[in-house]
């Protein structure tokens, strides 16, 4: 067995759930074909046992010891074939399940990274999380059942041929009975498909509600809203439960059909076989073989109805995955080229709408009268929103988005710490040395945070870094940003959650840590502004004044009012 695929899974076909399932199967065609072949061998090994037993019984009735031994050895050989083929088939089936699940995870995560900020605008958190919670299992089950279902179909055909060769009436009973069973099950599949889709939507909404409650639990407790949201969660949970009951009601009918319909067919085959044996049309051994076939047919027939159920669930799951894969980012890149080398600064980054410029090697600060103006400018400069932005004279919209992300890093307070080892969360590229990490922690004044942890940088960070205070999270995020060492760094209020003493130290060290790199800090903190090489004052979305912090304090009253929180004289 080869290892699970970890390389690029390729481009999925998201034009429809059936096309996606076919893409998943085609991506592991070799394993799927081998698994189907082994499933066929496994099922045929079981299907031929009744025939061999019948021959052995006829030999025993005729007192033919040699023939009895021969057919006994055949039964033994078929048992060995079943054992070997069954174990190997199961391994391939497990591989098919895991491969389909992980390929779905890979393409979904890759699409989430590609969509970036577009994803939370288009889909809820719960809907995306549900792909990993349930959809990958259903897609994996669909691949698994294809192996067993293909072998089961071949086994039914083989048994039908044997029955026809032995007795035409009995063979016709099976030949006609199997399609009638499939037709009887068919009407249950459409309502099952619809109800499963409804339940899947409700599960996604419930997961979103749970994520919101967990994320905002501290706030809910502060305002006394726990009971209100708990009641809403219970109400939504009941709707999910009721949808699950509706799905289970159809599934119960399907499960009953899996027992009843094959049982009726087996009863017919056994009854006819017994009458033919009494009439002398078949031998006692053939009667035993016919009964063995009747019992054997339960398994492949049930597998076919199970396949209908699992393929239906896989279809619903694939539809949800296709919905994610069909989304397109709001912001797309161009096919231009960066005309700079790996060690060369990319040039001046300029926002034509506001007049803001971020020049190489300069520590620039942006103070905006309205905080939303600073956020809008940062989004345009980082290519998270459309705008008239140039980099080294080239329109940013014409440059590849991956290159833009590599050269320009925008860091705001909406960023999160992920769970895992602290060092890995800070050094996301895995290339920083111990000295690099130490310098980044020093520049962000986060050394005391690491020192307080018993395991230091090897400590485990919980989800969203919830064990750290708001100020500690902000300093750790700043250390992570500095370790990324982007050529152009845009920070949005990087010291808003720290005390004045810590803010002063961060302001002093930040410029030194970014020496030789282009840095723009959007802030109204006088401590940070005073350390900047150049300060831009934005009002109404446009640069109104620029210079040093102290010069602007003396010459621009609106700037002084913004950064010192003083009202302009003469205002009511």
From TrEMBL:
Report which superkingdom the organism of origin falls in.
Bacteria
Pfam families linked to this entry: ABC_membrane, ABC_tran
Domain ABC transmembrane type-1 span(s) in chain numbering: 33-313
- Keyword match Transmembrane: yes
**Membrane spanning segments where?**
20-45, 145-164, 170-189, 259-278, 284-304
> What SUPFAM superfamilies does the record tag this protein with?
ABC transporter transmembrane region (SSF90123), P-loop containing nucleoside triphosphate hydrolases (SSF52540)
Domain ABC transporter, chain residue ranges per copy: 336-565
Q: State the protein's name.
A: ABC transporter
